[in-house]
Amino acid sequence: MTAGGAPRGTLDPGRIRRLPPEVAELIAAGEVVERPASVLKELIENSLDAGAQLLTVDIEGGGVDLIRVSDDGGGMTEGELAAAFERHATSKLTSAEDLAAIATLGFRGEALASIAAVAEVVAISRERGATRAYEVKVGPGGMRGPTVTAGPVGTTITVRQLFHTLPARRAFLRSPRSEAAACLRVVADAALGRPRVRFRFRSQGRNVLSTPGSGDLLDSLAAVFGEGARLAAVEVDSPGEQVGVAGAVCGPSQTLATRQGTVVFVNGRRVQQRSLLAAVESAYRGMLEVDRHPIAVLQVSCDPLAVDVNVHPTKREVRLRDEGVVFDSLQKACWQALRRARPAPMELGGLALRTTIHPPAEPARPLEGLWEDRPRPPQDGPADLPSLAGAGSWRPLGQAHNRYLVVETPSGLAILDQHAAHEKVLYERFLDDLAEGRPGVDSQQLVEPLLVQLPTGCEFDANLEMELSRAGFRVGLFGERTLRCTAAPAGMAASRAEAALLDALNEGGTAPSGGGLHRIAALLACHSAVRFGDPLSPEETRALLTSLSRTQGGITCPHGRPAVLVLGEGVLLAAFHRQ
User: Fold this and answer.
1) Which domain holds residue 269?
2) What confidence tens digit (pLDDT) does each residue in 246-290 have?
3) For the chain, what is the domain count?
4) Is 383 part of a structural domain of the chain?
């Protein structure tokens, strides 16, 4: 009854109308099923939840014409198979309390019903220990079955004619090639997250990806990104009390032009959390070239009660109760692993040598480039490429234009940007000096004190004074908005001290960890390094090479510019047509 006494069902709803069930289903399906890759993701997650150890995926037409996922999991009974396609029907939750600590990839009971609302679906399943399999056919018109059929233990789900009832959605899909690449990334991510599971991915009948299921992450890494990624990988193992981090990060010799190679899992669930991706990339500061991104596969483990996975329709993002703690733990784990990495082999990547003879280009294979920007092996073999560890034995040949150092390596030539190379050496040294628990950068007394105006918005207090002191500056107030500097970082020319101090003030001082530390170390290195144009003696060149051989990380300066280019024997022979 309403307040006026009239039965609620007799009220005129006016312009408000209840949607027909088929329309409501299409709207709900649109939130879960965005493209073929999202269908594939849901099916793979169901297979993994069912305990699959072998998972085979076939697609045609980029997944629009066909998606078939077969697994050897536990399978379903006749009744379970029929119930699985009902909306909000799931085997993974029993009460509202279960939402607080979800341990499975799927949990809403929406995926199969949503897929069946926009495609034709055939599911065949046989429970482990059963003597027969069952089949159902589901689509926008309803369900047919279950009927008895033949089939192995496990489940096979075939999806055909995706979005045939939604031509507008189908029209907005990308090309079959692009959709196939998106499907490949879904399979690759799942394979990296479950190295104990064997994955096979075929597109248009061709084998595209296969992982061994050995349980070794490096085997899956090599299958997805190539053998170079395995060689450059460093294990990450940081248990932690609140947050644990495990996996592998690749050294700076193996990078991508996109962030597709940075794969982060939270309690086994693949997420695309911006803050977590930023934590990984911040650990690579000073190691990567501009616009290059790392290859890393990381498993973050924490209390399930501290993670809310039910905040995004496609479960791409999660809400973390202590996101700052997770960020710091992930960044620290990656940073420590990269510090243990051996210097990366170098090659003259991306530089075309102009010759008079141009060999004919090979025709592209149909699936070539399906994985966009996959790292390619070097032109020279890994054994033929020198590394920074051997730079101390390289023979200097001379200096060109007071800018570049030309040296002989055991298997070719190397050209060094003298400022970037020296900057790289100093950057690592300053990072060590500024690390937590260290006293800071050594200072040297200035012959004449510097007077520097405080930048607008910068307030001088005890914290800033202490941070500048750790960075090597000795300063004090000299008037209301003027600082008097009596000492600068050791090794920095007095003529550069004022500019360096102003930059440090604009940075707000240094910090015990994180991005501030990297920025201050890079700033000090830039102002202390030999200039691009300064003459260097042979002794100074040898000293720089020796220091470079002791420097960890990649071959770039802190700002991402290459410090060293190497012409290996293979490149030189090819350039002069001797092979």
Assistant:
1) 217-340
2) 999 998 778 888 888 999 998 888 988 888 998 898 888 777 777
3) 2
4) no
Each residue of 301-339: b (16+ CB within 10 Å) or e? Answer: bbeeebbbbeeeeebebbebeeeeebbebbbbbbbebbe
The whole-angstrom separation of Cα 387 and Cα 118 is 54
The Cα 332–Cα 238 span in angstroms is 9
Tokens in use for 335?
Answer: 């940073």
**What is the C-alpha to C-alpha distance for residues 428 and 558, in angstroms, rounded to an integer?**
9
Using DSSP's 3-state secondary structure scheme, residue 489 falls into strand
In a domain, 166, yes or no: yes
Say if residue 197 is in the same domain as residue 304.
Answer: no
Structure tokens at 71: 């697994």
Return the residue matching tokens 């079959």: 176
The secondary structure of residue 522, as a DSSP letter, is H
Residue that is last in its domain, among 156, 175, 210: 210
Distance CA 50, CA 127 (A): 11
- Entry pTM: 0.70
Token pair belonging to 168:
């507008």
**Rounded distance, CA 576 to CA 255, Å?**
29
Q: Tokens standing for 211?
A: 């992982």
Count CA atoms within 13 Å of residue 73 on its CB side.
24
Longest dimension (CA), the chain: 101
- The C-alpha angle 569, 545, 339, rounded to 5 degrees, equals 95
Residue 570 lies in a domain: no
Residue 57's identity, in one-letter code, is: V
User: Measuring CA to CA, how many Å separate 404 from each of 86, 399, 419, 536?
Assistant: 69, 6, 9, 10
Which tens digit of pLDDT belongs to each residue from 504-552? 888 654 444 445 677 888 889 999 999 999 999 999 999 999 998 888 7
